[in-house]
Design a protein that fits this description.
Blueprint (H helix, E strand, L loop, with lengths): L16 H19 L6 H10 L9 E5 L6 E5 L9 H19 L13
Antiparallel strand pairs: 1-2
Length: 117
């Protein structure tokens, strides 16, 4: 592995408690809301359903290739939502903080991250 490189360790969202609860209870929850004549707004249901596909290879991925080492990797698509997805919400939070430091706060300079394996 080259200096400054790190090993990619894919997350396994389907193994988390949050994923398990949503996957197991979503249809029942939606049906009960419908029975009570109080369905969820479509964007909320879509947020739940998109979360259940986030980070899972079977729901789509991009293949990346390193010309230096010749290694290929499949990187799953993310939902890019912030409501229920801790991974995408955290990424959005980090992107927003970086934007504020780089473009909004006066004299801001982002510290260099030293990521080592």
């Amino acid at each position: 592995m080259a200096d400054g490189a790190f090993e990619y360790i894919p997350r396994k969202p389907e193994e988390t408690v949050l994923y398990g609860v949503i996957a197991e209870e979503l249809e029942t929850f939606l049906a009960r809301r419908q029975e009570r004549d109080r369905p969820l707004p479509r964007f909320v249901e879509r947020e739940f359903r998109d979360y259940l596909t986030c980070g899972i290879l079977e729901h789509g991925f991009i293949r990346v290739h390193c010309d230096d080492c010749g290694h290929d990797r499949a990187v799953p698509y993310s939902c890019k939502k912030r409501g229920f997805c801790p991974s995408c919400g955290g990424r959005k939070m980090a992107d927003t903080a970086a934007h504020l430091i780089d473009h909004v706060f006066p004299g801001g300079s982002r510290p260099k991250l030293n990521i080592s394996p």
